[in-house]
Amino acid sequence: MKDAVEVIDRLLSHLGTILRYIAPGFAALFVACSVFPGTRSFLSSASPAIVVLGMLLGPTIYGVHSGALVRLFWYPITCLLHKKKLAVIFKTMSELDDQRWLRRASEEHEVLSIQREMDRWAAMLNFLYCLSYTMILIPATAKISQRCSASSNWLIILLGGFVVLAAAIVSDYQICGKEIRLSDQYPDGRRPNQ
Question: Of the candidates 102, 66, 80, which has an alpha carbon nearest to the alpha carbon of residue 176?
Fold first, then answer.
């Protein structure tokens, strides 16, 4: 039974990796296919180039998100949760990053289990953010450049992108609050009494 649980845990871990790094690229290709009229024939050709393009776009979108854009959302959320000065907020954000790594390196089963669940939640959250970027930026670019299809696909996808972004922000607010509580509950990645 323990072996089955470990296999399921590894599969879920791989699903998180796919959601973070690969799925956003294929979502971007799907959105482009829905919005730009000329891309449908290219994408339906089932060319290996599509797989390569999707697998390159995904990490690129995630890299831009994790390297720059996520801070634009995380800062106001942390401000709402803490209601402190700017310098304290930046210190808190840095400490939350440090605490997350300490929990991942912990040898305590309870701490590792909690952090695995948080990482699964974060994978879904990162996917939602990356999906919203493609659902907002691609249709907006198509409309501005007047290269979108005559149908209303671009508007439906654009509005859907804002809904997905709102869901990501709400989830981010929840996960950020939980991370703050976990950093207090498990300072330095372990239970305080140890």
Answer: 80
